[in-house]
Amino acid sequence: MRILTLHCDYIKFFPKIPATKIRDNIEQKWFEYKNVLCCFVAIEENDNENKIEIAVKEILNIFENVKPERIVIYPFVHLTNKPAKLEIAFELIKKLEEKLKEKVETYKAPFGWYKEFEIHVKGHPLAELSRTI
């Protein structure tokens, strides 16, 4: 699993075109979240629920240090050249969202869509971090 975290003043996204046959059933409208830790996540081959637990701990650690108000999980297969099968990635991203929601306010960008997006990243030492799980 690959994770890129960005501490953002805001992220806005609009699901434009379905990208895969397995995808979230989502309304096509603009979504906007302010003061977020945006977590771009790529699920890789051999990722499993144990890695989700590790990812949750890593993300929460960053969250505690950065102190945003909420988290946005943004599925982003482009971080890896070894992606998991679509069905597995879909389920593990949902699990990641569920586990984080137990601890902090968490949202997820739609899985399986081409999205238009806009972000504004804060400029401090912890604003841009990456993790390989």
Number of domains: 1
What is the element string, with H for helices and E for strands? Answer: EEHEHEEE
The CATH topology assignment is D-tyrosyl-trna(Tyr) Deacylase, Chain: A
End-to-end separation in angstroms reads: 5 Å
Task: Give the low-confidence spans.
Answer: none
CATH superfamily: D-tyrosyl-tRNA(Tyr) deacylase
SS-based class: alpha/beta
Q: Which strand-content bin applies to the residues?
A: 35-45%
Helix content: 25-40%
Shape: globular
- What's the architecture, going by CATH? 3-Layer(bba) Sandwich
Q: What's the main sheet like?
A: 6 strands, mixed
Q: What is the typical, i.e. mean, pLDDT?
A: 97
Question: Helical segment tally?
Answer: 2
